[in-house]
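Reminder: ligand-aware prediction takes two inputs, not one.
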Amino acid sequence: MKRIFSGVQPTGNLHLGNYLGAIRNFVGLQDDYECIYCVVDLHAITVWQDPEALRAQTREVTAAYLAAGIDPKRSIIFNQSQVSAHAELAWIFNCVIRMGWLNRMTQFKEKAGKHRENASAGLFVYPSLMAADILAYKATHVPVGDDQKQHLELTRDTAQKFNNDYGVEFFPITEPLILGAATRVMSLRDGSKKMSKSDPSDMSRINMTDDSDAIAQKIRRATTDPELLPGPEALDAEGQVPEERRKERPEAWNLLGIYAALSDQNWAQVLAEFEGSQFSSFKKALTEVAVEKLGPIGAEMKRLQQDAAYVDGILKEGAERANAVALPILREVQEIVGFLRP
Ligand code: AQP
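Here is what comes back for the chain with adenosine-5'-tetraphosphate:
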């Protein structure tokens, strides 16, 4: 059986990158996999979260899952802290994973920045918890954005080392699934930075709950360059954008990539449509498709966020189902490790 695990942190400001890079893909995967979708609140508190805001943000991510089309009857939707196997397995993995592995994680370096000594220990061992999230369900596949590839590699290494250390064939070596045209959506203000929840400028991202006016304004003000839009001859033989070209015009390629993803077209189709166009006319088309695709999802998210009892009920039921899968696996791990359970 093929099983997917994935999660989104409830850290507020869910944006187009989270939608195109993650949540939208989660929906399609339901047809081919048993899917477990988590709101990873244990991960969220690796950086400070106001408790009241954290509760609201947890409901926001749940609402986004539901509004985007994840079906809670087919897939398991729950928040991480309700299933204690995540934290328990993470501890065991803290004792399997080597310091050297964690020291190489680029995301820790980016997030801790110059204030490494002040970062929480949780942020440093974040990849250990991520390995536990995935392996507590023996997930066979994980859909990941580019930015999470290194962490998944660490999960694979952890499974391998655990199996070797204890002489068992217990954990699967989980495979990545890189999906979708816009796997990496960049900031609307600076095409070299990824679109991010924690960017202090709200103009840098399109939030999933932005209304049509906000979407239009953000796209209108998005950074561009003075040239006309490129044609299909800019693509390589595989129909992809060569890295050096992307670096020359990061903002233009970012907006074109967003358009391609939202309109379900490939690069060649989009470039054929807009070759030689001004940004002004392209931005109108981009606004139209963004409003058409995100508008209904944002509206449904807002409606669900008003109904906390319903959303909490979904999470409770999901946690019970998640626990039923994870607990027997955790018990086997405890047995393998040698924990006595009289
Ligand atoms: N810009 C992006 N483009 C494509 N995919 C993205 N994801 C995030 N940003 C982009 C994908 O969204 C999923 C959930 O992300 P997360 O909330 O667990 O953590 P993150 O990657 O740290 O997200 P942010 O938005 O960048 O938050 P902050 O600012 O808090 O760090 C993941 O699958 C991720 O790949």
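Residues 8-9, 11, 17-18, 21-22, 144-145, 147-148, 183-185, 194-198 surround adenosine-5'-tetraphosphate (CB under 6 Å). The mean pLDDT is 95. We will return to this case in the review session.
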